[in-house]
Amino acid sequence: MARVSKKPEIRRQEMIDASLELFSSKGYEQTAVSDIVKKLGVAQGTFYYHFKTKSDIMAAIIESLVTEKVNTISALTDSNLTTEDKLHKIIWGEEPGEEESKMLEFLHHENNAFIHQKILVQTVQQSVPYVIRILEQGVTEGIFRIQHLQETAEILLMGIHFMFDPGIFTWSEDTLKHKKLAFQQVVERMLGDSFAFSQR
Predict the structure, then answer these.
(1) pLDDT tier, 114 (very low <50, low <70, confident <90, very high otherwise)
(2) By CB atoms within 10 Å of each CB, which of 62, 147, 181, 187 scores lowest?
């Protein structure tokens, strides 16, 4: 059967999608380039036309995941939402869609822990400037009283992305509810007691 010729950008995305599925089910280390090309039904040379190594395709996946998460926070920064609503969305976000659920499945595979950690660290680092802008807006409006904007943004993001990541900690429903309430109270005090989630 003749191979189907596709535009380079389409073929590249197919390779990323196929790799993501395999990394989710087998883990990154356990997946070979031969597995990826076999899944797509293409020649091994086709893979190396788009990516030099398997680590290059992982770098593309990491960049895509981090960019998506950071863009969500960036969009909030420039939105017309109130400062309180911006902060609430950053902390609790929204239920993941189908595509994000696939990504989470990949990240939470036990063999992908080092990749998961990389993505979390990069997401926090790249999101900090946008969260600082939201905190500055709250300070200007008299909602927040913060002395250390950089560190406050870092603590907020690290708490969100590490403490409440189900791939790192697995809480029971009751425990999670309790920890979310405690986290909200800690955030309220950190922001100067002039903001309360219950007032939203």
Answers:
(1) confident
(2) 147
